[in-house]
Amino acid sequence: MNSQTSINGDPETAPIAAPRTAGRASSMMRSFGTLFGSNNSVERRPPSQNANEHGYVEFGMQDPDRSGRTLGTFAGVFSPVALSMFSALVFIRVGFIVGNAGLYVTLLQFVIAYIILLFTVASVCAISTNGAIEGGGVYFMISRTLGLEFGGSIGTLFFLANVVGCAMAISGCVEGIMNNFGPGGYFSGAEGFLPDGSWWRFLFCTLINTSMLLVCLIGASLFAKTSVLILGIVTVCLLATYISFLAEGPKLVPTPDENTILPNTTQLIYTGLNTTTLTNNLGESYTQDYTSKGKMVDFATTFGVLFAGVTGIMAGANMSGELKSPSKSIPLGTLSAVAFTFVSYVILSFLMAFTTPHETMQNNYLFLLYVNFWPPFTAIGILTATFSTGLSNLIGSSRILEALSKDQVFGSFLNFILKGTWKGNPIAAVVSSWVLVECILLIGSLNMIAQINSVLFMLSYLATNLACLGIELTGAPNFRPLFKYFSWHTCLFGLIGTLVMMFVINPIYASSSIILCLLLVIALHLFSPATQSAQWGSISQALMFHQVRKYLLMLDPRKDHVKFWRPQMLLLVSSPRSSCPLVDFVNDMKKSGLYIIGHVRVGNHTDLDDATIEDNKQWLSFVDHMRVKAFAETTLANSVREGVQHLIRLSGIGAMKPNTIVLGFYDNEAPKDFFQSSTSPYKTDGFNTGDMQNFPIRRDGEEKHIDVTEYVEIISDILRMKKNLCLCRHFHRLDKHFISKSKHVKYIDVWPINVFDPKTENPFDVVSLFMMQLAVIMLAKWKHLTLRVFLCETNDTNSTAQFDTQDPNLPQMEIFSRMKLEQTLKSLRINAQIMEIQEWARDTEFTRHSRILKQFTQSAEATEGSVTEDNLNRSLLYMQRANQIIRERSDQTALSFIYLAAPPPIDSPDFREISARYMELLTELTAELPPTILVHGVSTVTSTTL
């Protein structure tokens, strides 16, 4: 027996069936081998490769020393975070902020910035303590939570944010160097040791950037070892600054040569501790920024610079690949560094406001150099803080770029990053980051770079809060972070705060970064491999599940109204290979309704494994290949008929249940393999190798695996279950591209006459209206076609009066029927041509033959013994004549809808013989027609009311 049993051999055939393959011994042995730890069953991998089937690294499976994880909390998180948050701000730009915004606004800005940071840190801690963290830091957390599209796009922007942050730190470092050793510098006198100018500064920035490159090429561990020492130096310099504010008296501070707003001869004043100075510095006093060509300073400018200086909260998370225990070190180290830097900044701001007039802070951003009791402390602090911050950002950006390349987010575009890794150090990623930093340095102004840096980092923080908020709202059972000091309220506040402050800093930069992020999301959704989302999981899936379940519960089937009826299709398919055009066509006919592709596998439930589990994966791949909006549903049953009953009863959920069942037609035509046909638009080699060969097709000459009796029984079951029915024939001839381009194909035809029982008493019954509804749906897809409805005048067989060609009442009846049809179409808002057919009314011999067909739709008692050879021959002649009438008018027809008479009663004593004759007559009726749908509707689907 074939591996799959089909209802028929037609390409678009209905339910599928396949027996379960025996021979489970090998899978049992594999199972026992896995259970008892057989060497043959489990692949031995190095400690760093112990990942489960879903890609998650198991806890406790790695040896930190062997996997390269050597950093602890202080060296790996606290020091990088504290240094990054000090950056160029602590010695160079706090005075700029206090001098322009005043103490009150400065403290308010620090509070706002740190509240946003604190909530974001809470989100980072929650995500980082919910599972094993690999290299890539924040990008890793966002991508594994939000999924490929958002994770990849935010990761890309976070990479750019680190690049810009590195450029900002280098600019600050060069600014400090020039103010110490350039013309008019503190240590170099009027002429200076170093030449000054925009291109000279760019050269010095390049030299510093290159020195950072060399450190990164040696390895991140060197930076980690030196970061503790650098933090100690910066802390000592900062303490020296505090002591200087308390100990030093009034002094004169020169105006830097770079400041063209004031004359160089102007002397600025430092008062020391003075209440009058404090009073004058409490309020705002905005002026021009002498480093930005006289651009006016405002709240947004000062906050942008401030926030850019404290964006280093992710520096520790970026080192996650080198941390011994990321889930422990990231929360502890980051929170303690945030608290330490906040206290340091508040003290520094207060002492500046208490000792330095705002004119001095506005016109010399390096005034600390002149008020320090030992000026080299300030110079050393500036150079070490900015250099370490830039180095941290350069390392962080390279690690994010490496993670993006490993995840194949941009396909093979970043493969050179993987190839350029030596002994675990991503050399190509470091060099690429270095090149981008060079490009950013061309901007020149630190304050302008700071605003770009702030916006990009804020967008990253927004995504982090969004990720934590989303996973918290989904209520996923596996979200159990060890860090408990967060809630959806903190996530939401952090999200809103970052979004608002992005636009406060710079609306243009904020809008541009969001647009860029959305473009990246769309690009990754369209072009990135779908396998990554399946491996990582996507929060969008969890959120959709949460919302869909809620709305499904609200969708009450008792409130359904015919005005809002839509077709909800269950297409029963045997072999996808031969059903591609029909699968594609039903996707168009569903009119945004539910679409389920059903498949029956014939087998025994006593087998060890359920083969439909693997079948489902293959059918989902088929749905992806076809690009249809459908669900795939497979079932295991002892027979095709039983499996179809399962699918009809159980497919769908809640109020979203199939109301229309679509079957392929039962005939003897050889099926066509659309996967291998060279002219097929559905051609693919993806299902022709390996396990994908589980889509067999009946070859020409092979015996069918389901008989005609069972097929008719399935039809009867569908109608008894009160489902609309469509039997589709000749759809292997359907060519949608040809229909859309051809000028010869013009019509969609509807034949609202029951050929088995033609009569005029009610030619527009439920079946006919259902046919017209489906035809109108397809007309909306093929707008260039015209709908034709064929008005078939008949002699009423229930009336004693018979009409012939001389009957004077016949013209009046024809006019009455046409008017009735026109009125029906008008009330249903259907635009169609009415075509009159007279054969049923004028050909009395033709009509006499048609009466014999009533036996196929009558009760069991009436049909018993009525099928004789003579009656069958006369019925076949009648069907051939009806087929000729339809065929003569179908030369330019793309699709025909024909009335399907109900099958013979299933309880007839000679049902097997009658069912075979029934299908034989339907075969004659539809022979050599264009793609044809035999339709039988059981429910009202049209409405004439508002």
Q: What is the secondary structure topology, with strand pairs?
A:
Layout: E1 5-6, E2 16-17, H1 25-36, H2 64-67, H3 73-86, H4 89-128, H5 138-146, H6 148-181, H7 198-218, H8 220-247, E3 251-254, E4 267-270, H9 275-280, E5 288-289, E6 295-296, H10 299-309, H11 315-318, H12 326-355, H13 358-363, H14 368-371, H15 376-406, H16 415-419, E7 421-422, E8 425-426, H17 427-441, H18 446-474, H19 488-505, H20 507-527, H21 531-536, H22 539-554, E9 569-572, H23 576-589, E10 595-602, H24 612-626, E11 631-637, H25 640-650, E12 660-664, H26 708-720, E13 724-729, H27 736-741, E14 747-751, H28 766-781, E15 786-792, H29 810-827, E16 833-837, H30 839-842, H31 844-851, H32 860-863, H33 869-888, E17 893-899, H34 911-925, E18 932-936
Parallel strand pairs: 9-10, 9-12, 10-11, 12-13, 14-15, 14-17, 15-16, 17-18
Antiparallel strand pairs: 1-2, 3-4, 5-6, 7-8, 13-18
In short:
This protein is of the alpha/beta class and 946 residues long. The protein has 3 domains: 74-532, Up-down Bundle (Amino acid/polyamine transporter I), CATH 1.20.1740; 563-664 and 667-705, Rossmann fold (3-Layer(aba) Sandwich); 728-796 and 811-945, no CATH class. Helices cover 54% and strands 8% of the residues.
